[in-house]
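Exam revision sheet. Question 4 asks you to relate a sequence to its structure. Input first:
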Amino acid sequence: MAREISAGGVVLHRISEVWHVALIEPQKENSEATKADVKTGRTVLSLPKGLVDAGEKPEATALREVYEETGITAQVVTKLGDTKYVYTRSWGDRQRVFKIVSFYLMRYVSGEINHLAEEMRVEVKRALWVPAGEAGRLMAYSGERKLLQQAQGYLQAQGPWGKTGSREGSP
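Answer key, structure tokens:
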């Protein structure tokens, strides 16, 4: 079985006194969406993530992927954890793949959501801010929903951004 190592981010940003998370809607033909999602036309929303390049550290990959897939710049606060799963490639060899994705809690720094380079539109249909309290029911993958819950728990326990940044209230 093939293996892939990826990294991504749970980017939180306070907009009009409400915490929001940056999510992406992948292009269906290139996503790891389930067959049921594709058949029913269900919108697949997920966290930004991508493959770790040779010689690249996962934290750097997460920051790069957040920028490439959302158009925003973020700062890592802490590592949240890893998700592990098996999927079948919907392109090329249709091989089963064991994937590990390291996710980091990030705070928004700058940029305009969904302002992507044109070549990224092959991978990402759109990027958007979703209120964190609503995101869990809209996100396609249970592992990613759990990571969002962890991120919210971190902010509640540590205060916004812990010792790394400003205090903006809790999610």
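Marking note for examiners. The radius of gyration is 15 Å.
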